[in-house]
Amino acid sequence: MMNDKFNDTELSSALAKNTLDQIPSPKSDAREIVGLVKHGGKIDGYQLSDGTSVSKQEGVQMAKNGEIKGVGVAHRKDTEYLKSIPDDTEDNNLGNLPSISG
Predict the structure, then answer these.
(1) Nearest to 94 by CA among 55, 52, 46
(2) Does residue 5 surpass a pLDDT of 60?
C-alpha cells in the first residue's frame, strides 16, 4: 500500500522523470526550445529562443552540455531525443510548442 506522502501531481511528476535517462544541469546562459522543426510530421529538430534551429542530434548534445534548459534526454530504441522535464504545467511541454516546417 502506498503512503500518502505524495499527492497525485508529485507522483505523476516523479514517474515521468523516471522516463528520462539524463537531466542535465543547464548553464546560466542556456537557451530554451520554442518550437519543433518537423518533416512529414516527425520531429527533425528544435527552434531555440535565440532564433537558431538545430537538428535533433545537435539538440540532444547541446542539452547534455547544459546549453538548453527545461529538457531531459530520453531514448527510444537506439535514438536519443529531448523531452520536457515534468512540472506542474503542460504549456511548456515540447508537444505543445508550435511546429515549424523545416
Answers:
(1) 46
(2) no
Q: Which residues contact 22 (CB under 8 A, 6 or more apart)?
A: 64, 72, 73
Query: Does residue 27 sit in helix, strand or coil?
Result: coil
Look up the pTM and report it. 0.79
Q: How far apart are CA 96 and CA 19, in angstroms?
A: 19
CB of 6 closer than 8 Å to CB of 12: no
Q: Where would I find the beta strands (DSSP E) of the chain?
A: 33-39, 42-48, 53-55, 71-76, 79-84, 99-101
Burial class of residue 88 in the structure, from the number of CB atoms within 10 Å of its CB (0-12 exposed, 13-18 middle, 19+ buried)? exposed
